[in-house]
Amino acid sequence: MLLRAVTLSVLVACSLELESLVHAAINCPGSKGGLNNAQRMAVLDSINDVRRKVAKGNPELLHPEAPTATKMNKLKYSCEYENKAMKFTANKNDSSEGWIRHTSQFRGNLDRELPRMFEDYAMKVGVAHIAHDMAKLVGCAVKKNKNATLTVQCNFDKGWNYRKNKQPFVKTGALCSECAPYGARSCDDGLCKV
């Protein structure tokens, strides 16, 4: 029995190690989005951290009695969406209707700014555009501007527009209680893993 427990423990540890290695390598070959793999990971981790806080009803981002989310997907990085974001930053308008965008502009070091950029945005502007509970994909690009600022543009597969949808951006209830009906395998610290 002890041998089985140890074997199971080793298998779980190996599985988690493999998942973290796969998660750590976001390679977008041929992308001209301006982000390297480490920066892509920083963006993804930062956005998922905000989404996790929203899912858990974090009072710092929302309000003191904020409810929890029944289903908040953990985002995956999309090279296709990165390319769309790059087209948008290059042309200011890529005429692709329906893409949900988040744009931030700042001065400073990109590697230092990326990990906190989305939480800063959420604290100042709100979380609805980056925390739509049904979103599954995000891709971002960066552009250096003439005035020494950087523009980071992110595209999401699903987004929130209250005027259009007339619905909240997240369904509230017991944390992760509706992950499975939407194809999620498990709940990872408040986020549904699809």
Automatic annotation (TrEMBL):
Q: Where is the signal peptide?
A: 1-24
Q: Does the keyword Kinase apply?
A: no
Sorted UniProt keywords? Signal
Show the Gene3D superfamilies listed in the entry: CAP (3.40.33.10)
Q: Which residues form the SCP domain?
A: 38-164
What is the protein name given in its UniProt record?
A: SCP domain-containing protein
Please report the organism this UniProt entry assigns to the protein.
Trichostrongylus colubriformis (Black scour worm)
